[in-house]
Amino acid sequence: MSMGGVHGGGGGTGGARRGGTAGAGATAAPRRGFSVDEQAQRAANAEAPKIPHLLRRISELFAPHKPALITTVVLVLIGAALSVIPPLLTQRAFDDGLFPTDGSGPNLTVLSWIVLAMIAVFIVSALLGVWQTWLTATIGNKVMGALRVRLFTHLQSMELSFFTRTKTGIIQSRLQNDVGGVAGVLTNTVSSVLGNTVTVISAFIAMLILNWQLTIIALVLMPFMVIAQRRVGQVRARIAGKTQESLSEMTAITQETLSVSGILLSKSFTRQRSEIERYADENQNQIRLQVSQQMTGQWFFAMVNIFMSSIPAIVYLVAGWLIAGGVADVTAGTIVAFTTVQARLLFPLMGLMRVALDLQTSSALFARIFEYLDLKPAITDAPDARDVPSGPALGRVEFAEVSFRYPDADDDSRPTLDGVSFSIEPGQFAAFVGPSGAGKTTVSYLVPRLYEASDGAVRFAGVDVRELSQESLISHIGIVSQETYLFHATIAENLRYARPDASDAELEAAARAANIHETIASFPEGYDTVVGERGYRLSGGEKQRIAIARVLLKDPAVLVLDEATSALDTISERVVQQALDDAARGRTTIAIAHRLSTVVAADVIFVVVAGRIVERGTHAELVSAEGVYASLYRQQEERPVLELPAVE
């Protein structure tokens, strides 16, 4: 038995699989240059998506931390109440301790008790502040961590088509930049809003108690500051959306160009300078947006600061008028206490306004996060989904009038598969051959339900795959593709990705079956050899055989080989082909084949043209039929073959 892969078997999707977007934040345009569509998409991304009940959904993130939140609220209220006591004690220190009204001179006993009380308040406030900071930091970071894991978990449930039409850098940006961007809000918002609100209210009450006429001075311009703050917040929210979109683009550029594949591509075409320029241009855009975001509202806060800082001087003047006119009895203690309260009012008031701005700014980031969380996976388990049944039918694969069109394909384009029907019995070796773009690879996508058939039914072990749980279905299918993916880890860790509990003996047995054990044993570190990113420290044949060993460790009932050897040189192909032949014994095998010489021993060969099966049979039957298969076989047989010198 011999099997192989077909170069270009997945081309039936045309360009549809590579384009498109996913949500407002996912751009998917040509890698070089900016098309009109991409510019339009980027402009749309700059505006935060409209998420219903956004504030309620943000508040729900804190629901699992109610006890800690209640404790924080209590600490904030106590701390805010304590912050008003020192100014009132200051008034008593001046009027009763330093300058008693009876003119007897300083009363040191009273003054000592007042000073001790003030120190005690400061100590308690400091301790409460440390406790409060620990609580808020813990709550905020736990909420942020849970949000990041929740988003990562949700992305794991998305269908394959979501990832084929969305840049990896865009997805990474949502997880890192957007979630990280709201960290400060999640960590500090609750305590800041509560603490500053209570402090401001308490301070105003204390000011009214001290002197209502002076309090009016501090309230005159407050409505104007609130209106200005809202306008500033709206501008900053818009800039924040554009800033995150720019960060997404920078992440995408980094992911594309600094991967091993990207570096090889840029070096082989001497495009390092253009890549640097592309990154530098986006970096300049990011700098401009960051500066704009930081500067937006600075004039507003500068005016607020001037106003609040000028109030003591105005209070002195007004107090002088009141005393000179005999309108109010204002003591020195009252003036000092009032200005002390007003000074303590400045920072919480500014803090409230900054929190309001931060909330408006971060709403764009929260909206982008919830936009991804609201995406509905196109492929989900049915409510009554069941496991794959065991028995003699395990390994049978059937297509019944299956038609399929990729989700982002044009409605008027021809379907990738059109009324395809076939049956593969357990243990059979079936090959799919045909010209590039015929839809062969799509067959391999529909069997494990990576995509959903548009019409018809795909059955596994006699059951419609839509009635089976995805986890159970994929556990019985092993896939070896042309593009082998290995993690930047050891060979043993890459193999155990199939079975984390596999013993060393089982790893060795799988490696021997894949004809790779001797090669691994020759490495200085053996199975502890780190393969490098995507396995670039290994040859193509070595990577492919490790991938085969990984599948063998999984021990699936059905083996799908999608162009498994088409990217290898002749010598490597022979070695890998032998490993594939050994791996296929006793399993249902579906091979997407390009080199027809590798599938001549197949039990059944399906010839796919333009999404339809036009011929089926054994190699001998199809050659004698003088149809499409015979024509393809003769074309490949007639191609000149470069004879390699024998290896000594």
From TrEMBL:
<protein>
    <submittedName>
        <fullName>ATP-binding cassette subfamily B protein</fullName>
    </submittedName>
</protein>
<dbReference type="Pfam" id="PF00664">
    <property type="entry name" value="ABC_membrane"/>
</dbReference>
<feature type="transmembrane region" description="Helical">
    <location>
        <begin position="110"/>
        <end position="134"/>
    </location>
</feature>
<dbReference type="InterPro" id="IPR011527">
    <property type="entry name" value="ABC1_TM_dom"/>
</dbReference>
<feature type="domain" description="ABC transporter">
    <location>
        <begin position="397"/>
        <end position="635"/>
    </location>
</feature>
<dbReference type="InterPro" id="IPR027417">
    <property type="entry name" value="P-loop_NTPase"/>
</dbReference>
<keyword id="KW-0547">Nucleotide-binding</keyword>
<feature type="transmembrane region" description="Helical">
    <location>
        <begin position="299"/>
        <end position="324"/>
    </location>
</feature>
<dbReference type="InterPro" id="IPR039421">
    <property type="entry name" value="Type_1_exporter"/>
</dbReference>
<dbReference type="InterPro" id="IPR036640">
    <property type="entry name" value="ABC1_TM_sf"/>
</dbReference>
<feature type="transmembrane region" description="Helical">
    <location>
        <begin position="200"/>
        <end position="228"/>
    </location>
</feature>
<feature type="transmembrane region" description="Helical">
    <location>
        <begin position="68"/>
        <end position="89"/>
    </location>
</feature>
<keyword id="KW-0812">Transmembrane</keyword>
<feature type="region of interest" description="Disordered">
    <location>
        <begin position="1"/>
        <end position="31"/>
    </location>
</feature>
<feature type="compositionally biased region" description="Gly residues">
    <location>
        <begin position="1"/>
        <end position="23"/>
    </location>
</feature>
<keyword id="KW-0472">Membrane</keyword>
<keyword id="KW-0067">ATP-binding</keyword>
<dbReference type="GO" id="GO:0005524">
    <property type="term" value="F:ATP binding"/>
</dbReference>
<dbReference type="InterPro" id="IPR003593">
    <property type="entry name" value="AAA+_ATPase"/>
</dbReference>
<feature type="domain" description="ABC transmembrane type-1">
    <location>
        <begin position="70"/>
        <end position="361"/>
    </location>
</feature>
<keyword id="KW-1133">Transmembrane helix</keyword>
<dbReference type="InterPro" id="IPR017871">
    <property type="entry name" value="ABC_transporter-like_CS"/>
</dbReference>
<dbReference type="InterPro" id="IPR003439">
    <property type="entry name" value="ABC_transporter-like_ATP-bd"/>
</dbReference>
<dbReference type="Pfam" id="PF00005">
    <property type="entry name" value="ABC_tran"/>
</dbReference>
